[in-house]
């Protein structure tokens, strides 16, 4: 991991995979096919890509029970406790609308309602991601979404990972479909004979899933298209090099495109972290991935001061930020741009990935300047309400008509004035 | 305007203009050019498209003062009062983060901060849109955004509409650039030598502006890409046909692609509205546009009951909904999907466009199922904060490590366990 002096111009931006023309054409073909042929198209793509002919996409109650029984009781307990923590944090985000009384009995209001149906995509492949189930489902449940659907690809025998189904069972989710890729996104966006369409689709996926989400954006809402994971750390000479290195590697192991950056005021720490990274890499099961990430995107920056480090972080706007310094909490208060901040030595980043209660779906690639983690608001919508009485209308109609005419919209002015067209109403 | 029976399958969806390949190629060329050549590129495109060679894009204090003096004092008063109303409604949307204490001194928190810089695009052309200035700027100001920039194309003499500058002056906005089209969007997204980049771009525009906003999405945040205006009305035999017709036409005059729909339980009202539409169209200055909208997309539906009308509206999810029935407020409580609801005879839709205080930037094309009007949240971002003490870490580290290993992420498990690697810390 290279060491260099902190410079004023920093960026975490990487060239993100946006898919090539052929991938996009494939995705468009699949979406059009599912839109036209529904279940039959989903079945055909599932056979083609997942290698299994399914008579029914929906996971049965029996499969759910069986999966739950298969998972170690300790893991069930861990997932249950994590779910409770996540629910607690997200319940703090609950919101209510308001009513604003105006003169003469008129009022304005904002009504906040949950979306009616959302779909969560859970990636399949070599690993199982029960934490994705918790992080996407719980904010929707707290928002009050009535119908929550999960889509996830099965293996060639038609099975889904037991841990994913167990996580769903813990949350009380029963509408789970064995389908993946662009066909799953299309089925949830447009609906099929057996799968009713949803209003929003969230969750991570491969390039085909990401492209499909972009394509259906507007027909349904989508969450962000997340890029590779990022961790930035601010540390001084109170930090321990082995712990810093372990935390940097925890994000580097996600993806060869992941980005791990340390900004430190201590040259000694910098050198020791460099040594520790090499030492720890050797025994890491995902060494190849982590090594590419560290070599291509990992940097240890030496800063003149913590203030300089803070400035750099505000410019980087990293997904995850750990602060391991004296008075870490005071330092954290100066951070304006970061997805999630982990304060102090014991707040290792994976605590947020799995357990603490905050959401692990976070803005990447410097978008923390303007974007937030997945949260309850993502599953709510607001309706404006206007009630004018005759008196209020009468007091303001001339002003509204003038403003409409100023913009050349005579029809708007006449609409407001129309209430006076009939004698009895003046 | 045609009359037909209400059917269970309704949709407001129209084929929206998404731009052709040539328009997209033009937009991409302009964006790349502005990214590379900054001010020089913006100047060149302004000369090409707006027909004026500008030495300085920025509106001067003198121009601002002059514009303000040019606008009728009554209009200044109307805009000022509208701005106060809009501010009042949006101030009700202000939010605060929270801190959630955990055991042993640990805590989670959510910090809510304003975006730092936003850019508002105000369309130019034949008309001036001071109301767009109010509706986009005020939510950002209420959120606490420090830097608010306006971009708007000038005419061939380098002038901007006085009413637009006056509206900006009323709000205290001073950073206004004479630039339009894709070059304005690119300049705000990437920055130039004289224009610093922003974090989010909002505001309506033509197809080039819309395509450019889509292209820079991810580099900056954008608001929705709004489609043509929509109005739906539910009315019974207590409604007056001339008022209903006037309100339908107020949205139809916006755009030939606009959509005006009436759902009524009264056949008499349906027939009278049909007659009134024809009568009022004849004298409407924007008759040609309104007529095309009414002919292509306008429908009067006869419903068996108000309940059926409500079901239809929830399926349509219109941008604007007026309810002119007995007990209109009770009916409004059953509406789940609408951008804004106008209750009762005196709440004519243009009241919301200009004056009442709610936002006129609203979700179109059935996206009210999942989207909201522009609001204060659009200019805020949330950061998650995690602070674990040694004790809390110790209590939960084994669970977190188990969940990480369940997902095949050994590096995550080791990071959490690393705090125990050194004897003295156990």
Short structural description:
The structure is a homodimer of 426-residue chains. In chain A, 44% of the residues lie in helices and 16% in strands. Chain A is of the alpha/beta class.
Structure description:
The structure is a homodimer. The model of chain A has no long low-confidence stretch (mean pLDDT about 95). Chain A folds into three domains: about 1-15 and about 230-355, Nitrogenase molybdenum iron protein domain (Rossmann fold); about 20-220, Nitrogenase molybdenum iron protein domain (Rossmann fold), CATH 3.40.50.1980; about 390-425, no CATH class. Chain A is globular and about 85 Å long. Chain A has a six-stranded parallel beta sheet, with helices on both faces. In chain A, strands 6-5-4-7-8 form a five-stranded parallel beta sheet, with helices on both faces. In chain A, strands 2-3-14 form a three-stranded antiparallel beta sheet, with no helix packed on it. Chain A has 16 helices and 14 strands. The longest helix of chain A is centred in the N-terminal third of the chain and has 19 residues, at about 75-90. Chain A has helices at about 20-35, 40-50, 60-70, 75-90, 130-145, 160-170, 180-190, 205-215, 240-250, 265-280, 285-295, 305-315, 330, 350-355, 390-405, 410-415, and strands at about 1-5, 100, 105-115, 115-120, 145-150, 175-180, 200, 220, 230-235, 260-265, 300, 320-325, 340-345, 380-385. The first copy, chain A, is α/β, with parallel strands linked by helices and about 425 residues long. Chains A, B: One of its GO terms (cellular component) is cytosol. Chains A, B: Pathway: Amino-acid biosynthesis; L-histidine biosynthesis; L-histidine from 5-phospho-alpha-D-ribose 1-diphosphate: step 9/9. Chains A, B: It catalyses: L-histidinol + 2 NAD(+) + H2O = L-histidine + 2 NADH + 3 H(+). Chains A, B: Its EC number is 1.1.1.23. Chains A, B: It is an enzyme of class 1 (oxidoreductase).
């Amino acid at each position: 991991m290279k060491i260099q002096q902190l410079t004023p111009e920093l960026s975490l931006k990487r060239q993100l995979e946006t898919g090539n023309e052929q991938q996009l054409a494939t995705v468009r073909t699949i979406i059009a096919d599912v839109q036209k042929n529904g279940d039959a198209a989903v079945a055909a793509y599932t056979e083609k890509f997942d290698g299994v002919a399914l008579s029914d996409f929906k996971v049965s109650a029996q499969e759910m029970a069986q999966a739950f029984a298969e998972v170690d009781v300790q893991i069930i307990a861990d997932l249950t406790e994590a779910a409770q923590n996540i629910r607690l944090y997200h319940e703090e985000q609950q919101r209510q609308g308001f009513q604003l009384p105006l003169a003469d009995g008129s009022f304005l209001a904002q009504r906040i309602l949950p979306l009616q149906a959302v779909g969560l995509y859970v990636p399949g492949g070599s690993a199982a991601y029960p934490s994705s189930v918790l992080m996407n489902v719980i904010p929707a449940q707290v928002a009050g979404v009535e119908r929550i659907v999960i889509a996830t690809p099965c293996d060639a025998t038609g099975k889904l990972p037991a841990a994913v189904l167990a996580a769903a069972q813990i949350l009380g989710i029963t509408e789970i479909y064995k389908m993946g890729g662009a066909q799953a996104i299309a089925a949830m966006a447009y609906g099929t004979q057996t799968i009713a369409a949803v209003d929003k689709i969230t969750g991570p996926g491969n390039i085909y899933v990401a492209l499909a989400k972009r394509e259906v954006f507007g027909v349904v809402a989508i969450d962000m298209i997340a890029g590779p994971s990022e961790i930035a750390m601010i540390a001084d000479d109170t930090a321990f090099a082995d712990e810093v290195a372990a935390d940097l590697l925890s994000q580097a192991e996600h993806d060869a495109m992941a980005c791990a950056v340390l900004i430190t005021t201590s040259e000694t720490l910098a050198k020791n972290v460099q040594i520790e990274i090499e030492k720890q890499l050797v025994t890491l099961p995902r060494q190849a991935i982590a090594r590419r990430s560290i070599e291509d995107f990992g940097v240890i920056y030496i800063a003149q001061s913590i203030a300089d480090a803070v400035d750099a972080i505000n410019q980087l706007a990293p997904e995850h930020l750990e602060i391991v310094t004296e008075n870490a909490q005071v330092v954290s208060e100066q951070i304006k741009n970061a997805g999630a901040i982990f304060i102090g030595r014991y707040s290792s980043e994976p605590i947020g990935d799995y357990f603490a209660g905050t959401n692990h779906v976070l803005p990447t690639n410097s978008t923390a300047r303007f974007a937030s983690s997945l949260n309850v608001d993502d599953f709510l919508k607001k309706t404006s309400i206007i009630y004018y009485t005759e008196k209020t209308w009468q007091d303001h109609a001339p002003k509204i008509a003038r403003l409409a005419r100023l913009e050349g919209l005579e029809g708007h002015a006449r609409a407001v004035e129309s209430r006076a067209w009939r004698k009895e109403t003046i």
